[in-house]
Amino acid sequence: MAREFIKGNEAIVKAALLAGCRAFYGYPITPASEIAHAAAKYFPRLGRTFLQAESEIASIQMVYGASACGQRVMTASSSPGISLKQEGLSYLAGSELPCLVVDIMRGGPGLGNIAPEQSDYNQIVKGGGHGNYKNIVLSPNSAQEMCDLTMLAFELADKWRNPTVLLADGYIGQMMEPVDFPEAVLEVPEKPWALQGEAADADRLINSIYLVPEILEDHNRQLQRKYAKIEEEEVRYEEYLVEDAELVLVGYGIVSRILRSVVERARGEGRKVGLLRPITLFPFPKVRLRELAEGGTAQVFLVSEMSNGQMVDDVRLAVAERIPVEFYGRMGGCVPSVEEILEVVGETVRKHGATV
Amino acid sequence: MAKKILRKPAGFYDVFERKPGDQLTTHYCPGCGHGNVHKLLAEAVVDLGIQDRTILVSPVGCSVFAFYYFKTGNIQVAHGRAPAVATGIKRALPHAVVVSYQGDGDLAAIGGNHILQSANRGEQITVLFINNAIYGMTGGQMAPTTVLGMRTTTTPYGRKVNNEGPPIRVVELLSSLDGPAYLERTALWDNKAIRRTRTAIRNALQCQIDGLGFSMVEILSPCPSGWKLNPDEAHEWMRENMAPVFPPGLKKDVRAEREPFFPEKRELTAEEIRAAVDLQIEEPTPYPSELVKPEYADPAIKLAGFGGQGVLSAGAILANAGMEQGFQTSWIPSYGPEMRGGTAHCFVHISRHAIGSPTVSNPDVLVAFNRPSLEKFEPELKPGGLLLYDSTIIDVTPKRTDIEVLAVPATGLADELGFSRMANTVMVGAYVAKTGILSREAIEQTLPLAIKRQNLVETNRKGLARGIEFVEGLES
Ligand SMILES: Cc1ncc(C[n+]2csc(CCOP(=O)(O)OP(=O)(O)O)c2C)c(N)n1
Ligand code: SF4
Q: In this structure, is residue B40 part of a structural domain?
């Protein structure tokens, strides 16, 4: 194991190289630029491609081209740039091309600001581009996970032939923490569908156009079956003291770190509070949430996001009104404090008469 | 619409199995220029011996289904993006011959920036640009290359210079760039012109094969359906209306001056990869926890001062050293809305336990490097917390009585060493000596990692030592 004290944004790049990523196509934007800076430094050292494209629209299409040739490939941006990448994401999904897209979310809408928000949830988890498709979405909450989930993202993308998004925020990107980088480098699987610049290519086609409605419907059905299997096999989440919790906090990314401290403080005051943190946002841990709502000790969920409440919709769908779901959000780059959420915990308890 | 049967060159599939319906003819209208160009390209690919390694990028437009026909590698892409996709392909497979086949709407309107930028990068691809002065596929709308006065479904009164502007001459535009190696405009209006087109396509492909850079042929091409003319009239119309605006000819050819470029392929071992990304394998040296004074264990530290005082790097040194000694640590700079007014601060955790929120409202330790930071953050400090401040430059004393205060004349001590900018490491030394939280060796080890200018590491080491001595002097 190689341990380094490192910024989350930089950990992504080292992890990508260990994962066998061959090319990085980017366009500068705060607060994701450090990823491009680190990629510009390290990719050429290994004889791999780093290219600053003319726009986010172009960079995701370069990713499309590289992925079509079987390369592990990535791009990174932040919210306004991700909006521009949506066209490419739809084509990648339609042509079933694996890749890694990193979104270091910032404040919106419009130019917003460069402070951390989580308001890209809908545009990333719900599609964002046109068509009936899904991205696999991973949500790190530490520098260590910036490394681990980057590597996992490449594996999942190849396993499912699907674009995968690492959805982080400016805070996780800027934070420095110890990271244990694995010793082994990942093997890239054979891709018998990919273009190789060889005779076999004549039987291969990278494509998202299906003119005949029934054939396009078949293609869509096959995609939906794939997404259903991903939902069966790839759900990941972390729980903290939920076994006996009467109030369960739900949050992802940097908010989940704050919620962890909230749980510790609340427990210190003798309150039965726990935390469920989705690590995969698609597939969403809805089965686990339903279990907690149905069978367990939970009497109320409190969801917190740095947005107007986007993931909370998925929690509500999963919980299906079995128990109440409350929401507390901050926007514009304001990060909720532990004390602030503790207060909301108190209010929630008073409102719902939970014994906590 | 009657379909034209192509005499199939070897570069085509025998049967167009990807095509719904009739699999022997193309989908192009009779007299359409796409058919001619397809044939010229298919023949060239075979004659140049590159069929196996050719990858054709099909655009959006009437040639969206070019992949039905070419027995090569095929990829279909978004409207206008073909040069960007081709870039990704060529960088991945430098030995491949990558052909971006595009119409005028695709290339000159929605994809205008991509063609410009890939040409300027000298991207090693070949672009075949079908200029038919109209959007064929979507029903005869205006293209960037529609000539003035021409009626289309979106210029029913004719293209007007004051509304749509004049047509774009793409190869001339690109010829002003240094990137392209070969740019030619040809036409399809008679056999002679078609022969020249054949040669130009081969030249452009050869340019790529030889590694000489970006090549493109703009081909004036009939769209009888869009123009509402029969094929013969269409040829006449091209000569009369397109030739004056888009004069055929070689616009740029610097192949002879170019050095061939073929990127080298490198396969690295795991060890080489790790070395290249600066990862060294080493185990942390766990810190004997009995050395930490219990009242100072697991601190949440806030360091604050002016930008430029080394506040952020002081924090990073502490957190990095903490990691070296086996602690959980985190460092986060003031960020977003807090980042105002020229002051900088950061939070550091050094803990035996997993760290939740990296920021805290009420830190255990405040290290204040200037007066505004002291005044602003002193009230936040936890009761019983520890406050260190630079008493050389802060001319007020802390107000609270429920905290422990250590005045460190950090700037003064650094001045004595001849480096007033070392006040931050003096402060780090003072904090470590006061709390016993980290070993001096661990801090010294991390200095080279946290300090960008390596020639300053030694002076920082002195600053650190001075801070430690200062506290030891107080305590003895
Ligand atoms: C993003 C997007 N916008 C618009 C379209 C609709 N569209 C399809 S083809 C085309 C124009 C094609 O014209 P051109 O490139 O000149 O090719 P031609 O059909 O004349 O060969 C347009 C606008 C699309 N497919 N995608
Ligand atoms: S519409 Fe024009 S460009 Fe399209 S196939 Fe017909 S003739 Fe060719």
A: yes
Beta-carbon separation of B281 and A23 below 8 A: no
ipTM exceeding cut-off 0.90 for this assembly: yes
Which atom of ligand 1 sits closest to the CA of residue B130? Answer: 21
Q: List chain A pLDDT tens, one digit each, 356 residues.
A: 789 999 999 999 999 999 999 999 999 999 999 999 999 999 999 999 999 999 999 999 999 999 999 999 999 999 999 999 999 999 999 999 999 999 999 999 999 999 999 999 999 999 899 999 999 999 999 999 999 999 999 999 999 999 999 999 989 999 999 999 998 899 999 999 999 999 999 999 999 999 999 999 999 999 999 999 999 999 999 999 999 999 999 999 999 999 999 999 999 999 999 999 999 999 999 999 999 999 889 999 999 999 999 999 999 999 999 999 999 999 999 999 999 999 999 999 999 976 66
What does the mean pLDDT of chain B come to? 93
The answer to whether the CB of B135 is under 6 A from ligand 1 is yes
Q: Which one of B225, B227, B238 would you pick to mutate in the ligand 2 pocket, going by the greatest count of ligand atoms within 8 A of its CB?
A: B225
Please indicate, yes or no, whether residues B319 and B457 belong to a single structural domain of this protein.
Answer: yes
Ligand 2 mean position, distance from CA B136 (Å): 5
What beta strand segments (E) does B291-447 contain?
Answer: 300-306, 328-333, 343-351, 365-368, 386-390, 404-408
Starting at the earlier edge strand, list the strands of the sheet with A300-305: A237-240, A273-278, A247-250, A300-305, A325-329
- pTM: predicted TM-score of the whole model, two decimal places: 0.96
Q: How far is B373 from B307, CA to CA, in rounded Å? A: 11
CA–CA distance, B65 with A64 (Å, rounded to integer): 18
Of ligand 1's listed atoms, the one at least distance from the Cα of B62 is: 19
Structure confidence at residue B340 as a pLDDT band (50, 70, 90): low
Instruction: State the DSSP H helix or E strand holding residue A325, giving kind and residue range, or none if neither.
Output: strand A325-329
Chain A contact set for B360 (CB, 8 A): 338
The ranges of chain A annotated as CATH 3.40.50.920 are 238-352
As beta bridge partners, residue B186 has B219
Of B316, B357, B449, which has the smallest distance from its Cβ to A261's Cβ?
B357
Distance from CA of A59 to the nearest CA of B (A): 7
Contact A68 B316 (CB under 8 A): no
pLDDT in tens, B108-139: 999 999 999 999 999 999 999 999 999 999 99
- Considering the domain architecture, whether residues B244 and B302 belong to the same structural domain is answered as no
Residue where a domain stops, chosen among B209, B240, B257: B257
Please report whether residue B10 resides in a domain: no
Q: Which fold does the domain A238-352 belong to in CATH?
A: Rossmann fold (3.40.50)
Strand partners, B55: B73, B98
> Considering CB atoms only, which of A13, A209, A257 is closest to B356?
A257
Number of domains in chain B: 2
Task: Please answer yes or no on whether B76 and A209 come within 8 Å at the CB atom.
Answer: yes
Strand order in the sheet with B300-306: A2-7, A176-181, B328-333, B343-351, B300-306, B365-368, B386-390, B404-408
The SS3 call for residue B230 is coil
Residue B288 φ then ψ, to 5°: -60, 110
Q: Report the separation in Å between the CA atom of B139 and the middle of ligand 2, taken as the mean of its atom positions.
A: 9
SS3 sequence of B338-382:
HCCCCEEEEEEEEECCCCCCCCCCCCCEEEECCHHHHHHHHHHCC
Determine whether the interchain pair B67/A205 forms a contact, defined as Cβ–Cβ distance below 8 Å: yes
Residue of A nearest to B116 (CA): A54
Omega before A109 cis (within 30°)?
Answer: yes
Query: Of B305, B139, B132, which is closest to residue B219 (Cα–Cα)?
Result: B132
In the block, tokens 């008493």 appear at B391
Give the residue, out of B129, B135, B152, B221, with the most ligand 1 atoms within 8 A of its beta carbon, to mutate for a pocket test.
Answer: B135
Whether residues B77 and A62 touch (CB distance < 8 A) is answered with: no
Ligand 2 pocket by Cβ (under 6 Å): B 28-29, 32, 34, 62, 132, 136-137, 223-226
